[in-house]
Design a protein that fits this description.
Strand order of the largest sheet: 4-3-6-5
Shape: elongated
Number of strands: 7
Number of helices: 2
Strand content: 35-45%
Radius of gyration: 18 Å
Length: about 110
């Protein structure tokens, strides 16, 4: 949970700095993309987000989470599949496969007044 609190505080900092640079006075919503392999628990992030926004221009704003699945492609047989692990066995041929993507965590959009 401490991990997600730190992330929530960083998301709010990024949003507030961006909003201030653009002359906004209130943040209505923040959209973040979270990859399946990012190590972030979306429910924990949502729980921490409200506390992170207290007494900022983001207080009361919505957190919109876009969850991104990770993909893997077997270099032996070319089979592509979704995964939630870094290292997998190809369900087609049994070779070891590393996931590609799914590690991202980024602020994608900020809606302001």
């Amino acid at each position: 949970m401490m991990h997600e609190m730190s992330i929530a505080m960083n998301i709010v900092d990024i949003a507030v700095q961006t909003a201030q640079k653009n002359g906004a006075h209130k943040i209505n919503s923040i959209t973040v993309e979270i990859g399946a392999l990012s190590g972030v628990v979306p429910e924990a992030l949502e729980f921490c987000f409200e506390a992170a926004t207290k007494e900022t221009m983001a207080e009361g704003c919505r957190l919109e989470i876009v969850y991104l699945k990770a993909q893997a492609e077997c270099s032996a047989c070319g089979f592509k599949f979704e995964t939630d692990q870094f290292l997998n066995l190809c369900p087609q041929c049994g070779e070891q496969v590393f996931a590609a993507g799914g590690q991202q965590l980024q602020v994608k959009a900020i809606n302001v007044d």
